[in-house]
Amino acid sequence: MLNLIFFGAPGAGKGTQAKKVCEKFNLIHLSTGDILRAKIADKTEMGILAKSYMDKGELVPDDVILKMVENVIKSHPKSNGFIFDGFPRTIPQAEAFDIMLANLNMALSDVIHLKVDKDELIERLKKRAELENRKDDSNISIIENRIVQYIEKTAPVKEYYSNQGKLRKVEGIGDVDEIFEKVVEAIS
Ligand code: ADP
Predict the structure, then answer these.
(1) Does the beta carbon of 87 lie inside 6 Å of ligand 1?
(2) Which of 60, 97, 98, 103 is the least crowded, having the fewest Cβ atoms under 10 Å away?
(3) What is the pTM of this model?
(4) How far is residue 78 from each of residues 5, 12, 82, 118, 180, measured CA to CA in Å?
């Protein structure tokens, strides 16, 4: 099994690269953001709760996310592996995820960190707002709040995995296919 985490700030290109890598290695793309948006579209109870956080650029509570991830993993018992895109996003999520993986007899291979500087991130998110009509990309203060959340709550997750020897840094600026090659090289 190949289990990867794609880590990076909002707009770093995790989703784009995750889709390509999933195709190459026949993995399941588990994007917590995409799953939450699907739940919002279906107007489920979880979706309505998640929306109240997402629209402000806040993180959805850890327990909601963890249950959701576990359910998706369990619904694919025969997969070649997963790419976790946008998860874990807090230290408590990362700690609980280690326990979850051990209980499911799964191991994490690598954590791919896509590095992009802040000015480029803001430009990309503004562009995406026009293309995808995402509420959380639509206004500069929401975008900035997401970056603040990333710096305060998510960036420490990097050190958590670097302490486990699993962090692989990839420069996220440049051509999509060139970045893809570097991502594939970084997978051990
Ligand atoms: P981006 O990486 O561009 O911010 P995502 O689609 O990954 O976009 O996430 C959108 C929003 O969904 C986040 O701002 C947050 O509110 C929520 N979300 C997604 N994944 C998580 C997570 N692992 N923990 C908490 N909230 C999450």
Answers:
(1) yes
(2) 103
(3) 0.94
(4) 19, 30, 11, 39, 26
